[in-house]
Design goal:
This protein is an alpha+beta fold and 256 residues long. It has two helices and six strands. A hairpin with a 4-residue loop joins strand 4 and strand 5.
Length: 256
C-alpha cells in the first residue's frame, strides 16, 4: 500500500469517525430539540389553558361586577326610599306631637272653663241661699233701720265713753267662762254681709269680742263683734275659721 493510499485511507477513516461522531451529535441534538419542542408545546398548551381560564374568570368577574353594580343601585334606591319614609314618619311624629300639645291645651282650657262654671254654679247656690235668708229677715227697709239703730247706739256709746259715762242699766253682766253659750245668731244680712246676735252690751258683749258658733254641738265657725247695742250686736264672720254659711239659731259661745 502506498503512502498516499495510507494517507487517503487514514483521512477516510477520520472522516468516517468524524461523520459518526457528528451524526451522533446531531442525533442527540435532534432528540433534545424534539424533547424541547414537546415541552414547549406542553407549555404552550398550559399557557393557552391558563389564558382561556383567565379569560373565563375575567368574563365571570365582569358579570359579577355588573350584578354587584345592579345590587348596589337597588340598595341605593332602597336606602333613598327608606330615608324618604323615615323623613315622612318623622314629619308625622312632629305633627302628632303638635296635635298632642294642642289637645292638651284644649283640655286645660276645658278644665278651666269647667272650674269657672262650677264656681258660677256654687255662687248661684250661695246667692239663692243668701236671697232666701235675706227674704226671711224682712224687707230691705227693716234691715236699714236696724243698721241705723245700731250705728246710733254705737255712736252714743262712743260719746258716753268720751264723757266717762256708765251705760244705762249699771255695770253690764259678763260671762267669762270659756265655752259657755251666751246667745245665738238672730239673723243674717246678705247685702251688707253681717250677722245680728241676740246679745248686746247689757250682756257684757263688747266690740272686738270673738265667739265660737256651734250647730248641734259642733263648731261651724267664728264671729267677731263689730258693733253693740243693749240687747243685740252686729258681728262679722272670721273667714279663717268659717267654712260654711252661718244660720239663724246657731249658738254663740265664749271662745276658749
Amino acid at each position: 500500500m502506498g503512502k498516499v493510499t495510507k494517507i487517503m485511507l487514514g483521512l477516510n477513516i477520520l472522516a468516517g469517525i468524524a461523520g459518526i461522531v457528528f451524526g451522533m451529535g446531531v442525533k442527540g441534538d435532534l432528540k433534545k430539540a424534539e424533547e424541547d419542542k414537546t415541552a414547549a408545546v406542553a407549555d404552550a398548551k398550559t399557557a393557552k389553558d391558563s389564558t382561556d381560564k383567565l379569560k373565563t374568570d375575567n368574563q365571570k368577574l365582569g358579570i359579577d361586577l355588573q350584578n354587584s353594580a345592579g345590587q348596589l343601585a337597588n340598595a341605593t334606591n332602597q336606602l333613598a326610599a327608606t330615608q324618604q319614609t323615615l323623613a315622612s314618619v318623622q314629619g308625622g311624629q312632629g305633627q302628632m306631637a303638635q296635635d298632642l300639645l294642642d289637645a292638651q291645651a284644649a283640655q286645660a282650657t276645658l278644665r278651666s272653663e269647667l272650674t269657672a262654671a262650677q264656681g258660677l254654679a256654687d255662687q248661684t247656690t250661695e246667692l239663692q241661699t243668701a236671697i232666701a235668708d235675706y227674704q226671711a229677715l224682712g224687707t230691705p227697709a227693716d234691715l236699714r233701720n236696724i243698721k241705723k239703730r245700731l250705728e246710733k247706739i254705737d255712736a252714743d256709746k262712743a260719746a258716753r265713753e268720751a264723757k266717762n259715762e256708765t251705760p244705762k242699766g249699771g255695770t253690764p253682766r259678763s260671762n267669762t267662762k270659756p265655752g259657755a253659750e251666751i246667745g245665738a245668731i238672730a239673723s243674717y244680712d246678705p247685702k251688707f254681709n253681717f250677722y245680728v246676735i241676740n246679745r248686746g252690751a247689757d250682756h257684757g258683749v263688747k266690740a272686738g269680742d270673738e265667739f265660737n258658733v256651734l250647730r248641734g254641738g259642733n263648731l261651724v265657725g267664728k264671729i267677731k263683734i263689730k258693733q253693740t247695742q243693749p240687747t243685740v250686736s252686729i258681728a262679722d264672720a272670721v273667714k279663717e275659721f268659717t267654712r260654711q254659711q252661718l244660720k239663724a239659731g246657731d249658738k254663740v259661745a265664749k271662745a276658749n
